[in-house]
Amino acid sequence: MKTLDVITSNKGKYREYEEKLSSTFVVKMNNVHYPEIQASRLEDVVHHAFEYLEDYVPLMIDDSGLFINRLKGFPGVYSAYVMKTLGCEGILKLMEGEEDRKARFECVIGLFDDEKRLFKGICEGRISTKMRGDMGFGYDPIFIPSGYDFTFAEMETDRKNKISHRGKAMKALLDHLER
Ligand code: ITT
Fold this sequence. Notes:
Blueprint: E1 3-7, H1 11-21, E2 26-30, H2 42-50, E3 59-68, H3 79-85, H4 87-94, E4 102-112, E5 116-127, E6 143-145, H5 157-163, H6 165-178
Helix pairs in contact: 1-6, 5-6
This protein binds inosine 5'-triphosphate (ITT).
């Protein structure tokens, strides 16, 4: 079975990769640091990161973000910094009293093998009014995917993977590799 490194420092992300891909690959977590440029698109962050990772090929990297309509897409590409500073509580505070709670998660997976390719997944949903659930990671306790009444943090990993931004991007990656 082929081994693919997932370059990430985020164990929550890695769990999701393992759940979905481990029947096709040996998925290994590698938390080697790479510079993340402050670009306005996730795709640009991933393309830039490739330049620093040649020694670890074949690999995948993942850049993701939460985009909130009422906040004009914030925290978006700043999601990691905002998680460390404001956290879920800070986002709920910014959204206090807001009726338009629409939001989406985006995930861009960069595959660096004999070629470099990007796969994108989007999951629409809304911001809850309070934190709920203790599964998942990051913004999961405040994100309710469209068509559901519970947050990502109230879902098991396999269930989240079936509908999430990352699950969709991984599906596109698998479809590509099986072609
Ligand atoms: P790496 O860059 O090392 O992979 P990171 O945690 O910095 O890890 P990102 O920049 O892609 O990853 O993520 C931006 C933030 O969004 C970060 O705080 C994540 O925890 C959060 N996040 C990403 N995907 C998420 C998901 O599926 N559910 C909840 N939060 C998520």
